[in-house]
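Researcher: I'm preparing a figure for a lab meeting and need a structural model of a single chain. I don't have an experimental structure, so a prediction will have to do for now. The sequence is pasted below. Please return the structure as tokens so I can convert it later.
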Amino acid sequence: MSSEAHYIDVATPKAGADILVDVPKITLEWKNVSKVVKIKNTATKQVEDKVILNDLSGIAVPGELVVMMGPSGAGKSSLLDVISGRQKDYTGSVLANGQKWTKQMNKYASYVMQDDVFYETLT
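Model: Understood. Here is the structure written out token by token.
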């Protein structure tokens, strides 16, 4: 395997090509998002609440880069699951252009999960 095997070739589609899709510009906003799960304490055998997300708010505007950083277990993936609609069991709201997210908008949503993003050899 050559060292070039990790590089990605990027091409710009030509105008009028079938692969071009008219994608609307969407501002995503999440307000007061919280998520709590029930866990069983192995020491006491009691069921307890574990706070996964606690009153998080933010906005992602088209053309701007949003970076979520934090230690392992901080809730980054859980927040992305809520924002993308993969997780429905939460309190708060996720809005697209000021309106509640609908199933029709799912065709415009995607994100690359953390395990798939980078190669170890690239920095």
